[in-house]
């Protein structure tokens, strides 16, 4: 574990750290929808600070008297880091040291949900203050209406897939949809008794992804090479402080994201 997380300073024995790490992984994995949809590069470590874009911008020469020199500066996409704090009661840590395996980590569950939502939202909808342009922001296609009637979802998804094909974007395709929309899908059976989820998978040639943090839905290609999530520090638990009763911890990640092919996704709203 990297030194900047300061885990060695926490009053937490190895047995408790394992429970915390295992719980964080269990809570995060099903919610990290975005990284199941895009190309994932990394982890490149805490020292990774920027993504090379392979481009330059022209600068004026130094000084007042230019003599024909040409000056260019490399353009990079800075890595953004974020932390979501949470607390663990020291009494629970002591119980873990005694062999308890059912310690109270409810605040970690909350933090994991928020961390996953941050990553999903940045990738799919962007993060303006961090300079991240999301998939729906970059899309060259006009958004399609989705609505709340799940029986109309196949039509919207089919139109989106058709748009991608007409733009020369090959599949397989996937549908990333907000939790409320996903619930409507799994609860709906079409005429003839066929689950709506199966119908949507047939249209996409791919899967329907439950995606916390998504507004509406997004149909996108999963052929690869269109969207890149560049990770420095992958999600990990670090130590901040403690007192007699609680230990202050946090979930941390550093990443950048870029859209390489804006034609490869259609937003559904």
TrEMBL record:
Keywords: Encapsulin nanocompartment
Gene3D superfamilies referenced in this protein's UniProt entry, alphabetically: 3.30.2400.30, hypothetical protein PF0899 domain
Origin superkingdom: Bacteria
Organism for this UniProt entry: Sporichthya brevicatena
Record bears the keyword Isomerase: no
Localization (cell): Encapsulin nanocompartment
Family matches, as PANTHER family: PEPTIDASE U56 FAMILY, TYPE 1 ENCAPSULIN SHELL PROTEIN
Family: Belongs to the encapsulin family. Family 1 subfamily.
Keyword Phosphoprotein found: no
Protein name: Type 1 encapsulin shell protein
Alphabetized InterPro entries for the sequence: ENCAP, Encapsulin_nc
């Amino acid at each position: 574990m990297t030194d900047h997380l300061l885990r060695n300073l926490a009053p937490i024995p190895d047995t408790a750290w394992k429970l915390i790490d295992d719980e964080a992984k269990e809570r995060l994995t099903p919610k990290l929808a975005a990284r199941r949809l895009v190309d994932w590069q990394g982890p490149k470590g805490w020292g990774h600070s920027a993504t090379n874009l392979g481009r330059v911008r022209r600068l004026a020469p130094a000084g007042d008297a230019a003599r024909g020199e040409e000056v260019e500066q490399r353009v990079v996409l800075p890595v953004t880091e974020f932390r979501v704090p949470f607390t663990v009661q020291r009494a629970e840590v002591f119980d873990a040291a005694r062999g308890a395996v059912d310690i109270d980590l409810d605040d970690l569950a909350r933090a994991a949900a928020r961390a996953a939502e941050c990553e999903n939202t940045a990738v799919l909808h962007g993060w303006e203050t961090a300079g991240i342009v999301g998939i729906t922001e970059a899309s060259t296609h006009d958004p399609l209406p989705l609505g709340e009637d799940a029986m109309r979802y196949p039509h919207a998804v089919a139109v989106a897939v058709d748009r991608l094909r007409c733009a020369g974007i090959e599949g397989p395709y996937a549908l990333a949809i907000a939790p409320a929309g996903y619930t409507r899908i799994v609860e709906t059976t079409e005429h003839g008794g066929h689950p709506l989820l199966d119908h949507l998978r047939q249209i996409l040639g791919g899967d329907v992804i439950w995606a916390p943090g998504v507004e509406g839905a997004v149909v996108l290609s999963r052929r690869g090479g269109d969207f890149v999530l560049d990770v420095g520090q992958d999600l990990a638990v670090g130590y901040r402080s403690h007192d007699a009763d609680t230990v202050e911890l946090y979930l941390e990640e550093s990443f950048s994201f870029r859209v390489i092919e804006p034609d490869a996704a259609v937003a559904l709203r």
